[in-house]
Amino acid sequence: MYIHLRNDKMNSKGFKGMKRDKSLIKQHMEEYKNIEGEFFVLDHEKKIAYMELEFDKPSDIFDTNAITKMPILSDDFLEWIESAFSEAPRKYWIDLRISFLDFEGYDEEQMKTIFLKNMVLEFKKNHEKARVKNHLAYSLLGIGICLFITMMLITNLWKDGGLVKDIFAYIADITTTVTIWEAMTILVVENKERRTYMKNLLSRFSSLRFAVKKPKN
Whole-angstrom Cα distance, residue 43 to residue 175? Predict the structure, then answer.
């Protein structure tokens, strides 16, 4: 016996609910695509994101423990720079304005020079990190390939190994997989992220300004 139950009222409510859900999803997707505009001033025609930072004095962004001819930017400040690259919309330039209550004897041109020289220094540091990481990755890849060949040879030539052979093959298989996976993660994922960061350091800023911060009343 076939029984067909129909409830037009329930179906009508269901379709209305689906339409409402689709409308909400569309609204959330629009908010997702334009979420940066809720935090930063964006010029969509020129593709520029305007960002501003305020500090009491330049030494707040310097590594005060480092005794150098030119001030080195602190790790905290460099972390903010790195995060700014991801917070700005993709393919947008960054117009950065940094304000201080007290310039501590520096002028705007000196601060620009310090900032830009530090960007080059950060670029070089990451270039060296990439070189060391690549050497490590190629070494791991070589080890992984050797382990794989060894595993294949022993598996095919070791005829009467029994349980010992199976255990060895299992351990060798896991070690080979982990080693090659780690090598490829460095060569593909980490290198891509590092190259993007290095490129941003030298080319993402469309404008850099240093100004006097107005004291709050």
Answer: 51
* DSSP label at residue 215: P
What count of Cα atoms within 13 Å lies in the side-chain half-sphere of residue 165?
11
- Mean pLDDT per 10-residue section of the chain, whose length is 217 residues: 45 52 62 79 92 93 93 94 90 93 93 94 93 93 90 77 76 88 92 91 92 77
Name the residue type at position 187.
L
Domain ranges of the chain: 36-212
- Tell me the whole-structure pTM to 2 decimals: 0.72
- Give, to the nearest 10 degrees, the angle between helix 162-184 and helix 108-157: 160
Contact 59, 104 (CB under 8 A): yes
Backbone angles phi, psi at 6, to 5 degrees: -130, 130
Q: Is the Cβ–Cβ distance between 190 and 133 less than 8 Å? A: yes
